[in-house]
């Protein structure tokens, strides 16, 4: 009620405005009207807000509230009355609200006053703003007028400045382009001129890239010349010197390739341009691995993927690379491509929508246009099928001689003058970078100028970049001039060492040619570089650097494992060491000292290369190879001419020589006379007059020299005494081929030194010092030679043995493949040795071995060594058969340590296979010792006889130590058995076992088997026990007095000097052996070098005079139809039929010769394309060789072309006379019959018919007249046929007296093939044939005595040859006596 005072009319007030009556009745009165009371309560807030509520009333109400305490709360009142509780709440809240209002009111008053002040200020501000707006409007008007005036002024000034800037920019642009302007102007002018020739030059370049990449440099140049000549004939405009390399690539590209590792010689640059411009994928022939190194560097940034044909993940590699556009390299390919990737190789894509896909197996891979494929093979002469050649661009990356010369020169300079080499390397790199930079800058200029838009003078950024480019280009050009001057000075000094580079290149290419001699003679450039490096270092002038002793670092290393600071300290310590290495010792030579130094380098490179090569050569090839080296060096030095070398190698006869004088016919042949006629055209032989004329005038003097035992050292007749040692070789080449070997040996000594002919015994220690973990040893296996003990002995000295597990020896065979590969990997990791023997037995596995050797290179320990061994190819396969993969042979150090071939060494080695224990084990020691010694001598004879060629053995048989030791064991067992049974020595049984089973098991030729058994019949006899002769001057010692050690001493002290008679042969056999050796030396050189270079065999045009000569002498074909028509059917005999057959064969040969020579003539004239067959014929004509197509239709012969052609003419005359006569001639030249066997068969047919005898039991019998001149033959014989033209080898013939038949006798010295008298051959029944005092003499067509396994067999028939009654047949059997149809 206190609160309602002054507000509610229902509350009475006192005078002071307070509550007058606060009773309950008054309260009820106040609340009498509930609605009004409620409205009063609700509106009381407004009463307070208006400030009408008195404070005293509120304070009174507050006192009442406080006095009531907790009763005056909602909770307290609620217990008494809900309405009272509500009023209680209202009172509390109103009092609180009043307190708040009382506090806010002063602030409201302040707000009110502030608002009034603000309104007053705003009113003033509006007035000011109005004034300001009026002023601003006036100012804006004035500023507008000012700005207009200033804009006009600025526009005039900007125009002036713009004009000045354009003038400056124009001057700067002209300056920036001034250097290139002249070049571009000239380029534009040249381009206008070249528009005419561009199509022709481009066509030449395209043809070059498409067709000639596979060829050598010389043939490439020939092809390009052919392209230009053809286009010129067709009127296609060409430049003065069309250069495919200039069209296909730029200098900058070539420089970039050089920086990536491509050699800088022209052929390598051509190869690079072909590879980069060909749409077909490139397949590079890269035996020296220079191309693959370049490709790897060039494509490394593109994510090059490397795989191999047949690799398990090859397809995955292709799938990923094709899809992602990455290049792929297939390395070390063989000669075939797997069918699954042929679609990729042939670029055979399938279109799917707007994409192209490759089909790989059952998958289709989307082609990314960035994909590239490269293929590489290490094979030096691969043979790819036509489909691969058509689909790929085959490029020959084989190093060229000029390119290799530069590389070897750089290597030598690097070793001799490392300061120059380093500077030159830096300059070359710098020059290449300069070229690339200039090309890039020029391209940048052109690109910016071409892409400039609008006014170019307004493009400040363009002009600034052009100025910067010009500045850079000028700096580069200045540096380039300085670099070129410096490089010129370095090159001048380096050029002094050019002879050593040329010598190295010459030697390497000689080594490369040796693969044409034997399949094992294959070498890599890397191994050759190692040899040259070792050679130069062996004579270095630098003092060897002192290597400080290394202290143990184990503790230091342990500390460094967790200490990074230690690494930094170590680097700081190593820095001074690097500075010391840079301070190289410079040794500069000039004048005479430099020349002597270069000569020394050439000699030492030659010697080291020869020693490296000689170690792997077969003994039979060593003289041939060193002779080739001598000739090549002398030709390169200009001391002998290439034409002279070609004549020496081929010894071509004059195609139309004059008749030989009578006084020379007794000791010279027609072929030798024709060859001498060729020699007299040489300048060296013109000084003493015509050579043939001198021989005719001084026949006795020349014959005396010809008969000298060592003609190479004997004085020549007076007219030729001034000939140089080189030109004396020509006379020996023609007249005394048996002395060629000795003469060449002396020639090599005179020009190179004795160290090139005297080979020290093989030293494994020396070879080991030259080896490394990356170069395996390759031992060539020979009978009686086992490298294993030598390797084991070396290993023991180095602490590497099988006992400690560091040496593994595996004999290859079935099931050893995995063992070998695992052992190889383990040895490479742990630094052990592994020996893989007889790898030739594992042909299918050798590719895996090749790959394994490549893999272990990456992690092999420095102590790792690999030893391989293999037998050489057999006689049936030939020396060129690819037995071992080329990459394996190239990486290996080859060792061909053949056993000595002399009889004493063979006997010493054979007897060493036994011991005293073997003797003690036999119960018949006396017999065993004698027979064992004879057996060893027999083995030595069997092994040593092969050097005499076909007269010794007709083929090489693999007699080995196993045959010997088994025979020794058999001998012991048989003798022990005989002793146990109380029997005598079973001589026939032992001879049979040795001759037919042990040694005879190797022998396939019946005449060789006869020699083998004859040796046993002569040696294994009871005479051994009583001091019988084993050979002339060598007796079987008394076995009852000697033991094993005494036998060894007997061999060393009592063995006589070796002579052919110890083999049962005549001394002439050695002459024959030496003659064949001499012939084979030059034959091999000719086959390897193609005629010696620059001479015969190099130009088909040179064969034209020879063709003309032969065609003029070639007779017309026999008219066989007319000849046959003249003979009535009843007159036809077997002899007539043979004559007809011979005529047909002669016609076939004449037709082939005529057509092939006429065809070659057309090729020379240009009417026909020159084919491979034409080239072969031209080469053979110039080399005096019978062409294979002619040889196949003719009789077997070993003669040169001139002598062979003369025989053809004689054969024609005989057949013409025989066929036209329609009857048998009084004597038939049997050597001139194509099929002598058919003629001899016809002889038996006639006798069988005449005497009514069965043909199957007929045989031919021979009887030699004492007639050598056909004019003395009166007519047809009474029986059989007369034949002439036979020669005897291995023996001589003594004519009989009167009607007595002559007999076989010793040969005359140097009369290798004496002519036999006329022989009467008649057929008899085999039961009538009498062999008493007769030698079973085989008759062969040629001296090769070939069997059926070697093509056309040489054996014709078995003749009976009379012996002296006191003679023995075994004498002539061991002498290899036989008759021949032709004298070689």
Choose one word for the global shape: elongated
Number of discrete helical segments: 50
Report the count of strand segments.
25
Rg, Cα atoms, Å: 55 Å
Give the uncertain stretches in residue-range form.
549-582, 1091-1098
Biggest sheet strand order reads: 2-3-7-1-8
Would you kindly provide a brief summary of this structure?
The chain has 1384 residues and is an alpha/beta fold.
How does the SSE layout of this entry go?
Blueprint: H1 24-30, H2 34-49, H3 55-68, H4 74-78, H5 82-194, H6 198-211, H7 217-233, H8 244-248, H9 251-259, H10 266-277, E1 281-285, H11 290-298, E2 305-308, H12 314-324, E3 327-331, H13 342-345, E4 350-352, E5 355-360, E6 363-366, E7 372-377, H14 386-391, E8 392-396, H15 401-416, H16 418-451, H17 460-495, H18 498-513, H19 525-538, H20 554-560, H21 564-582, H22 591-614, H23 619-637, H24 642-650, H25 670-679, H26 691-697, H27 699-707, H28 725-735, H29 740-751, H30 764-770, E9 777-780, H31 788-797, E10 807-811, H32 817-830, E11 833-837, H33 846-856, E12 865-870, H34 886-891, E13 893-895, H35 903-911, H36 916-920, H37 925-944, H38 961-981, H39 987-998, H40 1006-1019, E14 1029-1031, E15 1034-1035, H41 1044-1054, H42 1067-1089, H43 1104-1113, H44 1120-1126, H45 1134-1165, H46 1172-1182, H47 1188-1191, H48 1201-1221, E16 1228-1229, H49 1236-1251, E17 1258-1264, E18 1281-1284, E19 1287-1289, E20 1292-1294, E21 1303-1305, E22 1319-1325, E23 1334-1340, E24 1355-1362, H50 1369-1374, E25 1378-1380
Parallel strand pairs: 1-7, 1-8, 2-3, 3-7, 9-12, 9-13, 10-11, 11-12, 16-18, 23-25
Antiparallel strand pairs: 4-5, 5-6, 14-15, 17-22, 18-22, 19-25, 20-21, 23-24
Helix pairs in contact: 2-5, 3-5, 5-17, 6-7, 9-16, 15-16, 15-18, 15-19, 16-17, 18-22, 18-23, 19-22, 23-29, 23-42, 24-42, 25-28, 28-29, 32-33, 35-37, 37-38, 37-40, 38-39, 39-40, 45-46, 45-48
């Amino acid at each position: 009620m206190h609160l309602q005072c002054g507000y509610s009319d229902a509350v009475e007030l006192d005078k002071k405005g307070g509550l007058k009556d606060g009773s309950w009745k008054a309260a009820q009165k106040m609340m009498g009207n509930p609605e009004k009371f409620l409205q009063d309560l609700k509106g009381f807030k407004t009463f307070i807000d208006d400030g009408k509520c008195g404070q005293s009333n509120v304070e009174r109400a507050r006192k009442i509230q406080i006095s009531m305490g907790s009763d005056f709360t909602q909770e307290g009142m609620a217990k008494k009355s809900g309405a009272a509780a509500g009023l209680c709440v209202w009172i509390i809240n109103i009092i609180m609200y009043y307190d708040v209002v009382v506090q806010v009111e002063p602030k409201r008053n302040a707000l009110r006053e502030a608002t009034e002040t603000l309104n007053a200020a705003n009113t003033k501000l509006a007035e000011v703003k109005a004034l300001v707006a009026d002023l601003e409007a006036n100012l804006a008007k004035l500023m507008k007028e000012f700005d207009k005036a200033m804009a006009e002024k600025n526009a005039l000034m900007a125009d002036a400045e713009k004009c000045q800037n354009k003038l400056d920019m124009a001057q700067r642009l002209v300056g920036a382009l001034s250097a290139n302007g002249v070049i571009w102007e000239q380029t534009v002018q040249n381009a206008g001129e070249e528009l005419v020739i561009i199509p022709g030059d481009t066509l030449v370049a395209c043809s070059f890239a498409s067709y000639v990449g596979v060829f050598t440099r010389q043939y490439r140049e020939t092809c390009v010349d052919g392209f230009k000549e053809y286009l010129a004939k067709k009127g296609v405009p060409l430049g003065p010197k069309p250069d495919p390399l200039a069209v296909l690539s730029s200098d900058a590209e070539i420089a970039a390739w050089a920086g990536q590792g491509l050699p800088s010689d022209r052929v390598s640059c051509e190869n690079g341009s072909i590879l980069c411009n060909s749409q077909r994928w490139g397949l590079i022939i890269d035996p020296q691995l220079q191309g693959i190194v370049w490709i790897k560097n060039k494509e490394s940034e593109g994510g090059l993927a490397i795989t191999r044909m047949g690799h398990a993940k090859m397809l995955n590699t292709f799938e990923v690379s094709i899809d992602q556009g990455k290049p792929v390299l297939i390395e070390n390919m063989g000669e075939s491509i797997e069918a699954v990737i042929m679609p990729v190789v042939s670029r055979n894509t399938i279109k799917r929508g707007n994409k192209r896909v490759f089909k790989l197996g059952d998958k289709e891979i989307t082609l990314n246009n960035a994909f590239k494929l490269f293929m590489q093979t290490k094979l030096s002469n691969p043979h790819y099928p036509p489909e691969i050649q058509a689909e790929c661009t085959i490029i020959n990356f084989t190093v060229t001689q000029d390119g290799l010369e530069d590389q070897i020169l750089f290597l030598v300079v690097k070793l001799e003058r490392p300061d120059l080499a380093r500077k030159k390397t830096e300059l070359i790199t710098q020059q290449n970078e300069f070229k690339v930079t200039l090309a890039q800058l020029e391209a940048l200029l052109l690109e910016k100028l071409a892409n400039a838009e609008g006014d170019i003078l307004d493009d400040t950024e363009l002009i600034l970049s052009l100025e910067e480019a010009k500045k850079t280009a000028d700096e580069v050009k200045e540096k380039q001039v300085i670099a070129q001057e410096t490089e010129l000075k370095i090159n001048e000094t380096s050029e002094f060492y050019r002879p050593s580079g040329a010598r190295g290149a010459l030697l390497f290419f000689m080594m490369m040619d040796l693969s044409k001699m034997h399949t094992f003679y294959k070498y890599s450039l890397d191994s050759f570089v190692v040899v040259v490096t070792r050679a130069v270092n062996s004579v270095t002038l630098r003092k060897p650097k002192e290597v400080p002793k290394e202290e143990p670092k184990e503790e230091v290393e342990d500390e460094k494992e967790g200490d990074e600071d230690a690494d930094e300290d170590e680097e700081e310590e190593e820095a001074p060491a690097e500075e010391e290495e840079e301070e190289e010792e410079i040794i500069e030579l000039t004048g005479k000292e430099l020349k002597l130094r270069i000569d020394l380098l050439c000699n030492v490179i030659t010697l080291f290369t020869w020693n490296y090569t000689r170690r792997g050569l077969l003994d039979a090839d060593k003289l041939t190879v060193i002779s080739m080296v001598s000739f090549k060096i002398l030709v390169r030095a200009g001391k002998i001419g290439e034409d002279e070398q070609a004549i020496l190698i081929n010894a071509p006869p004059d195609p139309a020589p004059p008749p030989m004088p009578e006084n020379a016919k007794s000791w010279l042949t027609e072929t030798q006379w024709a060859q001498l006629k060729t020699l007299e055209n040489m300048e060296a032989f013109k000084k003493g007059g015509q050579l043939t004329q001198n021989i005719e005038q001084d026949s006795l003097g020349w014959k005396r020299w010809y008969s000298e035992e060592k003609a190479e050292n004997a004085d020549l007749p007076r007219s030729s005494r001034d000939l140089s040692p080189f030109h004396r070789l020509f006379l020996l080449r023609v007249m005394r081929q048996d002395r060629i070997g000795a003469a060449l040996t002396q020639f090599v000594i005179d020009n190179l030194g004795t160290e090139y002919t005297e080979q020290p015994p093989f030293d494994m220690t020396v070879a080991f010092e030259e080896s490394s973990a990356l170069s395996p040893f390759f031992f060539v296996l020979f009978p009686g030679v086992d490298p294993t003990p030598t390797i084991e002995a070396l290993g023991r000295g180095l602490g590497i043995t099988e006992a400690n597990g560091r040496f593994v020896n595996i004999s290859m065979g079935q099931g050893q493949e995995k063992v070998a590969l695992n052992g190889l990997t383990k040895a490479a990791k742990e630094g052990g040795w592994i020996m893989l023997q007889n790898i030739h037995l594992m042909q299918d596995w050798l590719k895996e071995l090749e790959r394994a050797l490549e893999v272990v290179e990456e992690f092999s320990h420095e102590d790792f060594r690999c030893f391989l061994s293999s037998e050489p190819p057999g006689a049936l396969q030939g020396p060129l058969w690819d037995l071992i993969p080329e990459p394996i042979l190239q990486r290996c150090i080859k060792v061909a340590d053949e056993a000595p071939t002399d009889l004493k060494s063979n006997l010493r080695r054979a007897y060493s296979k036994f011991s005293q224990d073997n003797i003690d084990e036999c119960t018949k020691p006396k017999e065993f010792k004698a027979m064992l010694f004879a057996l060893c001598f027999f083995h030595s004879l069997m092994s040593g006889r092969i050097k005499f060629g076909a007269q010794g053995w007709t083929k090489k048989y693999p007699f080995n130590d196993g045959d010997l030791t088994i025979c020794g064991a058999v001998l012991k067992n048989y003798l022990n058995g005989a002793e146990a049974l109380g029997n005598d020595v079973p001589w026939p049984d032992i001879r049979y076992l040795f001759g037919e089973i042990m040694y005879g098991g190797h022998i396939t030729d019946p005449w060789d088997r006869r020699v083998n058994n004859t040796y046993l019949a002569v040696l294994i006899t009871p005479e051994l026990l009583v001091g019988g002769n084993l050979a002339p001057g060598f007796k079987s010692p008394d076995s009852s007095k000697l033991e094993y050690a005494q036998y060894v001493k007997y061999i060393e002290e009592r063995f006589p000097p070796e002579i052919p008679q110890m083999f049962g042969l005549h001394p002439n056999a050695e002459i024959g052996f030496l003659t064949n050796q001499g012939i084979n030396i030059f034959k091999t050189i000719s086959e390897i070098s193609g005629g010696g270079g620059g001479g015969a065999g190099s130009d088909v045009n040179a064969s034209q005079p020879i063709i003309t000569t032969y065609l003029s002498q070639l007779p017309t074909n026999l008219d066989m139809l007319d000849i046959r028509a003249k003979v009535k059917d009843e007159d036809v005999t077997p002899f007539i039929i043979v004559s007809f057959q011979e005529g047909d064969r002669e016609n076939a040969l004449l037709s082939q010769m005529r057509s092939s020579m006429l065809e070659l003539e057309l090729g020379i004239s240009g009417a026909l394309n020159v084919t491979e067959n034409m080239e072969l014929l031209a080469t053979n004509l110039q080399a005096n060789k019978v062409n294979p197509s002619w040889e196949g239709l003719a009789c077997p012969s070993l003669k040169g072309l001139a002598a062979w052609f003369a025989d053809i003419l004689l054969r024609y005359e005989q057949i013409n006379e025989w066929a036209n006569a329609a009857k048998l001639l009084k004597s038939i030249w049997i050597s001139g019959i194509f099929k002598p066997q058919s003629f001899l068969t016809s002889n038996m047919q006639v006798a069988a018919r005449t005497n009514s005898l069965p043909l199957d039991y007929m045989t031919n019998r021979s009887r030699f007249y004492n007639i050598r001149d056909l004019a003395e033959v009166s007519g047809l014989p009474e029986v059989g046929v007369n034949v002439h033209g036979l020669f005897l080898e291995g023996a001589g013939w003594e004519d009989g007296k009167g009607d007595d038949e002559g007999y076989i006798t010793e040969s005359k010295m140097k009369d290798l093939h004496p002519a036999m008298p006329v022989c009467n051959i008649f057929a008899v029944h085999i039961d009538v044939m009498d062999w008493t005092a007769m030698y079973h003499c085989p008759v062969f067509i040629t001296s090769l005595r070939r069997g059926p396994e070697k093509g056309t067999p040489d054996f014709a028939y078995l003749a009976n040859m009379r012996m002296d009654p006191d003679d023995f047949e075994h004498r002539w059997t061991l002498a290899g006596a036989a008759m021949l149809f032709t004298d070689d």
